[in-house]
Amino acid sequence: MGMYLIPSKDPENHVEMICPDLVYRFLRGMICIVALFFVFWPSKVHAQSVLINPEMISFGNAGSAGITGFASQSVNPANLMLMRKDYPFQADIINISSNVGGELFNVHLYNRYLTRGRVLTAPLQQEMLSRWFSSDYDRISSGGFNAGLTTFGFAHRREHDAISVGHQIRVLGRLGSSRGVFEAAFGGLNDELFEQAKPVNLRYESMIFMQFSAAYARSVFETEDGLFGYPTRIFAGVAPAVNIGTHHLNFKTDGTLQVSGDSLITHSFSYKIRSQGAFSRDLERFALARQELGADQVRFADYAGSPFEGALRPSGYGLSLNAGLNAEITLPQDFFFNRFTGTGPRTLRFSISVADWGSIFFTESAATYTNQRALQWRGVDINDDRIDSDYNGNIQDYLNFVLRDSIGTDKYLGYAITGGSYRADLPSTLSLGSYFRAGKLRAMADIHTGFNSVGLNSRRLLFATGFGYQVHPVLQLRTGFSAGSRRSPVFAGGIVADIGNAMFHISFSSVSYGNPGGTSASFSFGSRVRF
Fold it and tell me: Is the backbone of residue 63 left (phi > 0), alpha (psi -120 to 50) or beta?
């Protein structure tokens, strides 16, 4: 149609001719993006962590072109310029968010096979694990968790620029496993399952850090006759931050497991552990005692404490920098179905942003622990004389020593230590966003792609869309959707109470029950005061 290319000189005709065509093209574009997404990327998509806060969760993880205030620091700092002029000061107080998900966390399969009192026969085990892990034994199925607490966040907008400062505490984690680990757990070590060597690989990483951040945004371009002939403004923003790491543990093991017909168990393995702080010092003390006293004279449990001991003590430092652009087009007041949307601002926005949380260099007792060996074992040798003389006839204590201490200390815990600081990466994400507002209605659509796989982040694409509607002057309802094919599609919702100078957000998301592609769930609560 292209009517917007020939603006009418009559203002009334200009609105009637241009606006329907513009909104048609905008909505058609969003539909095309969704269609292309599902056609070309249905088997390559994972969940993204992006930002977890009440607004983005309620919009299905969309919002990089529409989230304002202090929260915009973490996704697109240019959005500080979107704050309302009649409330130039905003303060976020005690925003709490949590998110867990991924293909490894599959509540549907757990309920189907493990909670109905069924006898988990060998064929049923294989059926369950094929649904859970597929038939690829080398593939790692993973899940992650992400939690955040905003202790305070302050933002102030002026006519042509805006600033923001704040403090957050974040928790990130990721867990991964190959199918062979679960086959050993459910089926035991037998020569039918492990006649041929199978991969048994595990991954684990957890991190806690604090973030002190600031942001600056300003208007870099304004015109009354910009895109589509409407007033257009372009905003830019940056948000540097100092990250203080207080806990980190990274464990990665690869290997194979084989059981021969004569009950010979062969486990070839290699692992790497990166840790810092109190837990790292415990590992070093155990290794020293093992060398001085002998492997058969020390117990690991006597030296190793909790990996989370001292988890709030600073042990690493790093910097991050987020940046973004946002183009805002102001549309006529009677644009797009006034009977449904009511009167109010009409706005169209497009954004691009990079949320790079950087990395943290851990220096406090930081070290890397590695081991690569092969364990061959034919089972427990029951020595009655030793049980009587050394364990007072208690066979359970003897078995604990043989299985947990003798074998573990001799092979699995014979690690080498390399000291010095190391770097732990944080999530980094590229986001393309769009936002449309017409009175009571808000619509958003984002595409995110991660630069790494930390926490819930992924290098593969995520599509997210969300809608909000003002059902009452003080009440807004929101819903959203995000797609990731290796896990189930995620549906989200939220409620916003806007009462005078205060706002309260409650949001949640989860997968549709019954979908075997994995489980995801989020919950968030936040409050904001404006003046």
Answer: left
Highest mean pLDDT among 9-13, 294-298, 367-371: 367-371
Q: Which residue has the higher pLDDT, 486 or 298?
A: 298
Number of Cβ within 10 Å of residue 499's Cβ equals 10
Structure-derived torsion over alpha carbons of residues 132, 134, 136, 139, reported in degrees to the nearest 10: -40
Question: Is 240:320 a contact under the CB 8 Å cutoff?
Answer: yes
Q: How far is CA 26 from CA 15, 250, 349, 457, in A?
A: 16, 45, 11, 29
Confidence band (pLDDT; 50, 70, 90) for 2? Answer: very low
pTM for this entry: 0.81
DSSP three-state, residue 287: helix
The single-letter DSSP state of residue 529 is E
Residues 6+ apart with CB under 8 A from 363: 276, 315, 316, 317, 421
**What does the DSSP 8-state code read for residue 402?**
I
Tell which wins on pLDDT, 428 or 396. 428
- Helical segments of 41-178, H only: 54-58, 107-114, 122-133
**Tokens of residue 495, six digits:** 């409620």
Q: Is 29 helix (H, G, I), strand (E, B) or coil?
A: helix
Which distant-in-sequence residues (6+ apart) come within 8 Å of 410 by Cβ?
Answer: 295, 296
In degrees, rounded to 5, the angle at the alpha carbon of residue 58 between the alpha carbons of residues 56 and 63 is 30
How is residue 472 written in tokens? Answer: 């009452």
Given CA atoms 328, 330, 336, 339 in this order, what sign does their dihedral have? positive
As a whole number of angstroms, the distance between CA 294 and CA 317 comes to 37
CB 52 within 8 A of CB 470: no
Residue found under tokens 């549309």: 331
Q: Give Cα 370 to chain centroid, integer Å.
A: 27
Tokens of 59: 């919009």
What single-letter DSSP state applies at residue 76?
-
